[in-house]
Amino acid sequence: MKIAMWSGPRNLSTAMMYSFAARGDCAAWDEPFYAPYLAATGMDHPLAEEIVAAHEADPEKVAARCAGPIPDGKKHFYMKHMPHHMLPGFPLDWAKGCVNVHLIRHPARVIASYAAKRGRVTLEDIGFPQQLRLWQALPGPVVDSADIRRNPREMLQKICTEIGLDFTESMLHWPPGPRPYDGVWARHWYGAVHASTGFAEAEGPLPELPAELAPLLAQALPIYEEMRAQALAG
Hints:
Elements: E1 2-7, H1 13-21, E2 26-30, H2 34-41, H3 48-54, H4 59-67, E3 76-81, E4 99-104, H5 107-118, H6 123-126, H7 128-137, E5 142-144, H8 145-150, H9 152-163, H10 186-189, H11 191-194, H12 214-228
Parallel strand pairs: 1-3, 1-4, 2-3, 4-5
């Protein structure tokens, strides 16, 4: 099985990648289209030049690998994707051969977390419109990361049942530290998950955003609410 997990930034996406890789039967690929996205847009992201130099930046070649054999002799292939990386003209036919899952998070939490890591944040940066379009084009289960954090075992069981994969207890824990399949951007973004050995506890109240970010929240919230209404019950 090939699993394409679509998630915006500052979600539970890296922990989910570690969870599926911890099964032992899943190869993992971390944001395959990040380098092509940066190469095409010239976006000023942390470590951008290093990312483009270290990873395949041709979207056609990345798509061919997504559509190709499952690597490392594994039975399944878990691909962590970000919707905003899929620029117009980037190949997407490969995803029709995948089980597509859509991971969401309340935009107030996404905005607060993203702003803390990068400072400037736009609607395009956090990928809500792009995720809605992808979900409409590539239907599949919607999962709210808040539900996973509240009850990881129950939600992972539900995800596995929904996609036709056996759940294993090994998905709930992993050793601390980086992984060989991490992108080179991990040292900037993955500090918390590298310190983890499992899913973090449920989050508290929503963060209060500064006034200048209120319009961004107002744009993203209806998209989140539309997808949240279709999410697997937590």
